[in-house]
């Protein structure tokens, strides 16, 4: 292939990697945050503890701006399939096209239909109806993740298809959707979003406590999130282990890159805590390893044998350093998350949960860790699949659109500038909402009737009824005007010269 074509292909891959990396930041927060908001609102309806309502109403605004950013940044991805990888769209359109359409028809319409009620319906609909809208939006985010993961998992472990005249056609939709890696990847991703949102909330509450702001609100949020993370982080480690076993079975070369295994076959494989993979020399430098542990984890035997990178030609191997280090970033952050959850449990038992300054300091800096871990996991997933776009069937280099390299470079530059500005705007407003803090309990109490009763209409009716009674009963009105609380504003107490 000519150098110009190689440059165009590389730039197209970089552009898609950049745009999808930017986009995934926002769903990784909103899926989990929508779920948490629904849980808090449900707990408020059950317990009538105003702190739960305060948490739901506070986090709904950061959720809204993050959700909007996710929608805006995600639109371009489907277009890039056609512009930068047009041949891929021709080959796989019969499989991936309907999956993308199902995501729009089910999840996006569901979210769009009830998002307005969730955001603006607090005093316009009943409490139960608002809770239903909140739950519907949360479910919509889960359904959206389902279809996207199904499409991407098919590219990782294709199933349920046939190739007719060089194009993919569907033989079994159930096999396409529930392909071998899909259940593991969906569980892993959804748990990741729930944990990510949990750490965003945890960090915010810890930041408030360090500064003595909104103390009751922060204590409630910190306590809730630590229980949440204590349950989810070990579960994520278990699901991640199952996912790794699935990768060993269906994508052994990706696993070899993750573990830095070079020999074609190797037994008693050590677990590399650190190494510097050298792709040209086909070996690792500066290894720090635990002998036999990788074999034990992946085969449940110290003598277990694993397939290495040299079992396939060099042009069928992924970028080993990227996969290797991304995997360790993801796992390292996961271990840190489990440590924070266990430390919180220890402090809770000792009655020092809200007073341990070092713990609060660590928690307040944990906000981006979930997003970073998800990004690292996606790099393992996507880079580890290379050089295949559909694993074992379609090479990435064979389906890139024949675009001039300078045009791809221009669009990539525009994306970098535009998305950087958008990210800055999002950070600015997100931080502004956090610094503003939650609504006061007094303001929630003033608007409680709009939530408890049939909504805004009933509140307005009562207001109009009061005004009508005042007009029809002037004596009551003058008595009210003469009361101490209103005397300063009453026309009867205004000096004649000022009337």
In short:
This protein is mainly alpha-helical and 499 residues long.
Helices and strands in order, then pairings?
Elements: H1 3-47, H2 50-84, H3 86-120, H4 127-156, E1 161-164, E2 167-170, H5 173-177, H6 182-210, H7 215-250, H8 252-259, E3 265-267, E4 271-278, E5 283-290, H9 293-299, E6 305-307, H10 320-349, H11 357-364, H12 369-385, E7 388-390, E8 394-395, H13 405-436, H14 441-446, H15 448-452, H16 456-472, H17 474-481
Antiparallel strand pairs: 1-2, 3-6, 4-5, 7-8
Helix pairs in contact: 1-2, 1-4, 1-6, 1-12, 1-13, 2-3, 2-7, 2-13, 3-4, 4-6, 6-7, 6-11, 6-12, 7-8, 7-10, 8-10, 8-12, 10-12
Describe this structure in words.
There is one protein chain. The chain has 499 residues and is mainly alpha-helical. The chain has helices at 3-47, 50-84, 86-120, 127-156, 173-177, 182-210, 215-250, 252-259, 293-299, 320-349, 357-364, 369-385, 405-436, 441-446, 448-452, 456-472, 474-481, and strands at 161-164, 167-170, 265-267, 271-278, 283-290, 305-307, 388-390, 394-395. It has a two-stranded antiparallel sheet. A hairpin with a 4-residue loop joins strand 4 (271-278) and strand 5. Helix 1 packs parallel to helix 13 (405-436), helix 3 (86-120) packs antiparallel against helix 4 and helix 6 packs antiparallel against helix 12. Residues 449-461 and 476-499 have low confidence and may be disordered.
